[in-house]
Write a structure and sequence with these properties.
30% helix, 24% strand, 5-stranded mixed sheet, 196 residues, alpha/beta, 4-stranded antiparallel sheet, 2 domains
């Protein structure tokens, strides 16, 4: 047989359960916040020591896996430093002045290399967006742009034994590299454009 419970006892039991549940939730929030702050202030930031490096008069500082540096009052953040990309040949006559205040287009399926370049040039270019230079190969509804009129960076994998390289045709820069090397090649292009 089931014990008969009055309405008052039922409400008292519900209130007690709500207080216990609320206490557990508050405890979890406090513990998770404290744990997160300990991770960020402790071992996470100290995984590797801060490394400093100078290249062509520019000071590079590595912390949490990225190299940060400043050129002409602009802050940049890259995965690689210039000495790690020195072996990559580049044919490019464009400088940062060619990009400032103008739209920059990307014809690419590589989100990592494009993100690296776009984030670093974000405050300098008018806007960065996807586009295509060849309407037959355009897989999306991107606008078709021209190398003679627009600044376009094309990032793609090598085709049929093609060598990895960076080269320029008019206002188009082509980064031809395997998926594993595209960020490295993108950083090499950034160093060239920035003038490091």
């Amino acid at each position: 047989m089931k014990k008969i419970i009055t309405q008052e006892q039922k409400e008292k039991k519900n209130k007690r359960n709500q207080i216990i549940l609320g206490g557990i939730l508050i405890f979890l929030m406090v513990v998770s916040t404290a744990g997160f702050s300990l991770i960020n202030s402790g071992s996470y930031n100290n995984q590797g020591s801060t490394e400093e490096y100078e290249y062509n008069g520019v000071k590079f500082t590595q912390n949490t896996g990225y190299w940060s540096f400043q050129v002409n009052g602009n802050n940049f953040l890259t995965v690689y430093n210039p000495s790690e990309t020195d072996g990559i040949n580049i044919t490019n006559s464009l400088s940062l002045d060619n990009y400032i205040g103008k739209p920059l287009y990307f014809d690419s399926n590589s989100s990592e290399a494009v993100s690296e370049i776009a984030q670093n040039l974000n405050g300098l270019v008018l806007r960065a967006q996807n586009a295509c230079i060849n309407s037959e190969e355009c897989v999306s509804d991107y606008p078709i742009k021209s190398c003679s009129a627009d600044n376009i960076i094309v990032v793609r994998e090598p085709k049929d034994g093609e060598d990895e390289r960076i080269y320029q045709q008019q206002n188009c820069i082509f980064i031809i590299a395997s998926n594993d090397n595209q960020i490295k090649y993108g950083d090499r292009l950034l160093f060239e454009i920035i003038g490091v």
